[in-house]
Amino acid sequence: MSKSFVQITTDVSRALGTLRKEIPDTMQGFSVMAKGALQDGAMTELHKELIALAIAVTQRCDACVGFHVKALIRLGATRAQLMETLGVCTYMGGGPALMYAAEAVRAYDEMLPEKE
Hints:
It comes from Thauera sinica. This protein is mainly alpha-helical. The chain has one domain (5-115): AhpD-like (Up-down Bundle), CATH 1.20.1290. 84% of the residues lie in helices and 0% in strands. The chain has helices at 5-22, 24-38, 45-59, 62-74, 79-115. It starts with a helix and ends with a helix. The mean pLDDT is 95.
């Protein structure tokens, strides 16, 4: 059975809601860190999300791939930007990264219509 990145991110979002209720300080701290790390600065939020996707791919995190692909679509990342990022992932991470690079493409193709 093939996994759905829309379903993965929906399910994990629900579970994160539970964590927000039960460990609010930890989750608030993580949220502040994420906002600070991703805000525009010397690099744009788009470029930072491409880096985040690269890390998600090389760490083989399905939910992370889903969330960062969704953010990239929201930010207007092009397919070419996605592909070049995945090329670097494959170069640095070898075969396992290549398999997750393919998953990131599936996530992008699955989630892209959500933007419309």
